[in-house]
Hints:
CATH class: Alpha Beta
Oligomer: single chain
Structural class: alpha/beta
Mean pLDDT: 94
Radius of gyration: 18 Å
Number of domains: 1
Largest sheet: 7 strands, mixed
Strand content: 15-25%
CATH architecture: 3-Layer(aba) Sandwich
Strand order of the largest sheet: 1-7-6-2-5-3-4
Number of helices: 8
Number of strands: 7
Distance between the termini: 26 Å
Order of helices and strands: HHHEEHEHEHEHEEH
Helix content: 40-55%
CATH topology: Glycerol-3-phosphate (1)-acyltransferase
Amino acid sequence: MLxxxxxxxxxxxxxxxxxxxxxxxxxxxxxxSPSLKNRLSxxxxxxxxxxxTFLSGVKIVAHGLENIPADEPVLYIxxxxxFYDIFTAYRYFPGLTxxxxxxxxxxxxxxxxxxxNLHCIFLNRKNSREGLKAIVRAAEELRGDHSIWxxxxxxxxxxxxxxxxxxxxxRAAFQSGxxxxxxxxxxxxxxxxxxxxxxxxxxxxLVFDKPVPAANLSRAEQKEVIEQVQQKIQxxxxxxx
Length: 241
């Protein structure tokens, strides 16, 4: 109960009360320096996320940080177990990183503005044409200076076996030629989802594997990459769960 109250208080103070004037400030900064606006926005998100995990009693054990390219954007492909996946991982990204999220999050005030500042992409899973537009935009971001993070299962999964990966989740890497970094979460759902509405302390493992090249691949090779990435994430989950 106490952890839940502390997390809600943190969100109220730093995300809403202080977040609104900071949001206005970075908007003004963006009129003169869009790149600085992007960096400050991501730092704010990292700060708020760090407070949430700290107050929740989360211990994060990160593996393979040396596998993340520091000088080029990549497509992060990960499993998805909890809302806490976002809070857990953002601090470890060396560069600007946008995530692909379901379009329903676009309706949440304030959150939408911060997601826009991070260049996040809203995906309408019920409209294939809009889905294709999202993939094109993700590829454009990858060709620029933003990494992209996507959950190819399409929803949160709490079983030990990953849900099937949607092939479209990989297209941005194939179109842009950027590498894919497999990313694996374990036990993030032990913090909240497994006993809602209470927040409980947990030790989570976050594993980054070596980048998988995705440039100039045939259709058959693309399918092999998708299978390889899913297999790697499943193996890591089994290893660290």
